């Protein structure tokens, strides 16, 4: 009996196999393709490629040494392709239809599994058309080529053209002015009740932050050393540290060594003393791959060199012999360098060592200078006819952030294992040793010594891609300022805020391909932040339904948090007279009556977010995306004005006056972020080289439950009223051109900044354009920003600008001038793999 059953089973299996084989052999259609690494652009050999039909695997192939695969003699029908290989994220195409005799060519981009990138699904191109995304979150990726093609020298200028993103500026829009990120209203620097720590900024998957302000100054970043910028909107991003966000996550991914030799050289010049160069070389020799990049960008700024201003204020005039005459400048000089060495022990095991440095130097005077009437009799001119200005002559800002990292990849237990360690020193110094004698000398310094380790394990089990990870990182934070009658060094520098923060995060995640049309993801993060009072679990669920290869409907829901700044917790009571601040409650006899102090009991902001999105790719280069979202925030952090204990007085130079109030961070209220986002790129049927682009977003960002006293104190935070600096509307449109051989291109785009924008100006349009053409072996690019020179006046009116609507009284905010019309010309020469 057992023998008979064995024979029957063998016959049945053979019949099914023969039937399936016959079905595939009946047709004449073909599917061919190539799998490449999205990072190094090299072919991926040994990948398992499965041909799917009606959710079943009907054929299997493996990529060869060139990454190529093929399926022949296919019958007409609907198919899909699933690609899996160790060290890369699995990817599955949506179903596509094959006619009898049709030949379909696929291009499969596989994303390496690494902590240096956010969790994204690889892209499959069918006949040159990108398929809709498999990710449940709203993701924007800006490639390095896009920065260069549009003449973008700083990362924030590209992000400013993304729906739902606002770049917050401190005092003006000059290249050297502080610029921080707001996503969907969360994380604004100048937005009153907004907090910079509501947005997570990462470099290669690791946190970038400033313990003093909680955010990160994007103006210190140039795109030269980065392969791409990844932007995920909404709570609970998908990095190892992803729950630590409310508005969204920005991850800057550095370049990786190429599999074959390539070099790229760029030199540029432009208006206002603009100069730039970049040199990049990469190759793999035997088992050793390397990459070296060095870059510099600088500009003298838009201020005329013959302009002279008097910064002496009330010290100058007919009764004073001291006047601080100076020529303000907006000088900024950015430098970056990146070096990587990768050794391949085997196709599955590698070690990468990397070192990077980003540093900059800026003239603080020109970034803060504003007209004032601080002279005798409130005059705007001194006795010599020189205008009075507010500012700090002789002040310079230095930022440095060297980083060192090691990545080890291998295969174990049937999956992929990555170990990563890093160390980074983020330092900001305001150097006032060059100040005039009557002001000298002021100096401040903040240092964040960041270090961390990460472990990530990924394994594919059937239709499941399982991920487990642990990340631990620490921040040794120091911040302080000092004033003295002479030059200062750091030998005897006293810090008034010192703290060590240790963060631990545990992540589990399952990406499940439920059907060829439906992808589900479920993740949970446990976060334990030492002194920041964070111990919590944050779940996230996402679903993507793709009825065809070009359409995706996505939904996600999850929780996230915004921890306090380290300075919010460890800030000692600052009684230094020079650090005192004013408030409307201060009497005229003691205008600077407010001291600052931290709050050891401050809790993290907590958020729950929902996102529903739609994506459609058109034939050719077109696409359309739409998102609707809502995020509810609880325990929003504000700096409240509280009565000071009796008997406190200010100390140091100019001290002795009583302290009447304390600025102290507290959890006060809730906040709502909600809105709609649309973006599209439409090909022109009659002119396939042209495409029209456009986007629109409306974002409501307003507080709830703020008490009347805090409203009166903050002035620009009002219940159910839009935060200052977060425009209710933002939109733009333009066109792109690309020649058939892709060697020539052109663009023109305009961005509309509605009322309540980060520049605090009435609504206006800002236009940019440019073109790129081959010039022998070189590529010539010409770009023109702020073409019509809109709002490009030299200085803002100090404390002028647009009154904040809905308030009683004359309250006004600082106005922000826009960077003037600037032309830049670059020449690029590519060699080898970069061609």
Q: Biggest sheet, open or closed, and with what strands and sense?
A: 24 strands, mixed
Number of contiguous helices: 6
Instruction: Report the radius of gyration as a whole number of Å.
Output: 29 Å
Distance between the termini: 68 Å
Helical/strand content category: mainly beta
Query: Into how many domains do the coordinates divide?
Result: 2
Question: Architecture of the largest domain, CATH level 2?
Answer: Beta Barrel
Shape type: globular
Proportion in helices: under 10%
* CATH structural fold name of the largest domain: Maltoporin, Chain A
Describe the protein in words.
By secondary structure, the chain is mostly beta strands. It folds into 2 domains: 84 residues, Sandwich (Immunoglobulin-like), CATH 2.60.40.10; 695 residues, TonB-dependent receptor, beta-barrel domain (Maltoporin, Chain A), CATH 2.40.170.20. 6% of the residues lie in helices and 51% in strands. The chain contains 6 helices and 45 strands. The chain has a 24-stranded mixed sheet that branches. A 5-stranded mixed sheet has the order 4-1-8-9-10. Strands 2, 3, 5, 6 and 7 form a 5-stranded antiparallel sheet that branches. Strand 43 and strand 44 form a beta hairpin. The protein is globular and about 95 Å long. The N and C termini lie far apart (68 Å). The N terminus is likely disordered.
């Amino acid at each position: 009996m057992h023998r008979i059953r064995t024979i029957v089973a063998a016959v049945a299996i053979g019949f099914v196999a023969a039937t399936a084989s016959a079905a595939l052999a009946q047709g004449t259609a073909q599917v061919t393709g190539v799998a490449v690494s999205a990072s190094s652009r090299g072919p991926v050999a040994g990948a398992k490629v499965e041909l799917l039909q009606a959710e079943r695997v009907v054929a299997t192939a493996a990529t060869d040494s060139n990454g190529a695969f093929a399926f022949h003699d296919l019958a007409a029908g609907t198919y899909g392709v699933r690609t899996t290989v160790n060290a890369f994220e699995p990817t599955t195409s949506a179903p596509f239809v094959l006619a009898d005799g049709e030949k379909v060519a696929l291009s499969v981009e596989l994303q390496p599994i690494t902590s240096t990138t956010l969790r994204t699904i690889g892209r499959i191109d069918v006949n040159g058309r990108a398929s809709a995304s498999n990710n449940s979150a709203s993701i924007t990726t800006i490639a390095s080529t896009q920065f260069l093609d549009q003449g973008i020298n700083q990362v924030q200028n590209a992000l400013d053209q993304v729906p739902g993103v606002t770049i917050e500026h401190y005092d003006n829009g000059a290249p050297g002015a502080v610029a921080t990120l707001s996503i969907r209203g969360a994380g604004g620097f100048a937005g009153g009740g907004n907090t910079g720590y509501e947005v997570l900024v990462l470099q290669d998957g690791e946190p970038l932050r400033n313990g003093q302000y909680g955010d990160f100054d994007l103006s210190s970043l140039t795109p030269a050393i980065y392969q791409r910028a990844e932007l995920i909107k909404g709570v609970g991003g998908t990095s190892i540290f992803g729950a630590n966000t409310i508005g969204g996550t920005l991850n800057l991914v550095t370049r990786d060594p190429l599999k074959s030799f390539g070099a790229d050289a760029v030199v540029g010049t432009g208006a206002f003393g603009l100069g730039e160069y970049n040199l990049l070389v990469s190759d793999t020799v035997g088992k050793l791959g390397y990459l070296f990049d060095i870059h510099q960008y600088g500009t003298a700024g838009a201020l005329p060199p013959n302009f002279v201003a008097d910064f002496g204020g009330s010290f100058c005039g007919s009764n004073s012999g001291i006047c601080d005459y100076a020529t303000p400048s907006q000088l900024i000089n950015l430098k970056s360098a990146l070096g990587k060495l990768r050794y391949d022990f085997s196709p599955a095991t590698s070690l990468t060592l990397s070192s990077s440095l980003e540093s900059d130097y800026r003239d603080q005077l020109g970034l803060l200078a504003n007209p004032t009437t601080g002279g005798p009799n409130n005059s705007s001119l001194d006795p010599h006819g020189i205008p009075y200005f507010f500012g700090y002559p002789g002040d310079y800002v230095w930022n440095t952030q060297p980083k060192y990292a090691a990545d080890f990849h291998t295969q174990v237990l049937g999956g992929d294992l990555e170990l990563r360690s890093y160390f980074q020193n983020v330092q900001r110094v305001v150097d006032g040793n060059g100040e005039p004698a009557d002001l000298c000398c002021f100096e401040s310094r903040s240092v964040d010594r960041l270090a961390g380790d990460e472990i990530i394990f990924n394994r594919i089990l059937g239709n499941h891609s399982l991920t487990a990870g642990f990340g631990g990182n620490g921040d040794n934070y120091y911040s302080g300022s000092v004033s003295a009658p002479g030059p200062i060094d750091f030998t005897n520098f006293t810090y008034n805020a010192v703290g060590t923060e240790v963060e631990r995060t545990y992540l589990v995640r399952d990406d499940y391909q439920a059907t060829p049309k439906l992808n589900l993801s479920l993740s949970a993060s446990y976060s334990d932040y030492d002194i920041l009072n964070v111990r919590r679990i944050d779940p996230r669920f996402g679903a993507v339904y793709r009825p065809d290869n070009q359409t995706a409907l996505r939904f996600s829901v999850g929780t996230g948090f915004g921890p306090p700044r380290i300075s919010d917790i460890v800030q000692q009571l600052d009684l230094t007279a020079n650090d005192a601040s004013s408030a409307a409650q201060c009497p005229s006899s003691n205008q600077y009556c407010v001291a600052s102090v931290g709050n050891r009991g401050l809790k993290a902001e907590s958020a729950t977010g929902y996102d529903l999105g739609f994506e459609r790719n058109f034939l050719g280069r077109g696409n359309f995306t739409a998102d609707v979202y809502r995020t509810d925030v609880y325990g929003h952090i504000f700096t409240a004005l509280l009565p000071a204990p009796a008997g406190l007085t200010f100390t140091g130079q100019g001290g002795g006056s009583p302290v009447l109030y304390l600025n102290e961070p507290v959890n006060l209220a809730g906040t709502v972020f909600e809105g709609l986002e649309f973006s599209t790129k439409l090909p022109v049927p009659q002119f396939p080289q042209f495409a029209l682009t456009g986007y629109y977003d409306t974002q409501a960002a307003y507080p709830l439950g703020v008490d009347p006293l805090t409203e009166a104190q903050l002035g620009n935070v009002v219940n159910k009223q839009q935060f200052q600096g977060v425009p209710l509307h933002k939109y733009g449109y333009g066109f792109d051109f690309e020649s058939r051989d892709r060697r020539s291109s052109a663009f023109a785009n305009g961005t509309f900044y509605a009322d309540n924008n980060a520049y605090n100006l009435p609504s206006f349009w800002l236009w940019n354009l440019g073109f790129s053409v081959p010039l022998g072996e070189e590529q010539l690019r010409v770009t023109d920003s702020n073409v019509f020179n809109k709002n490009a006046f030299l200085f803002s009116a100090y404390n002028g600008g647009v009154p904040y609507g809905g308030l009683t009284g004359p309250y006004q905010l600082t106005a922000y001038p826009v960077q003037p019309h600037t032309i830049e010309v670059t020449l690029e020469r590519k060699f080898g793999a970069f061609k």
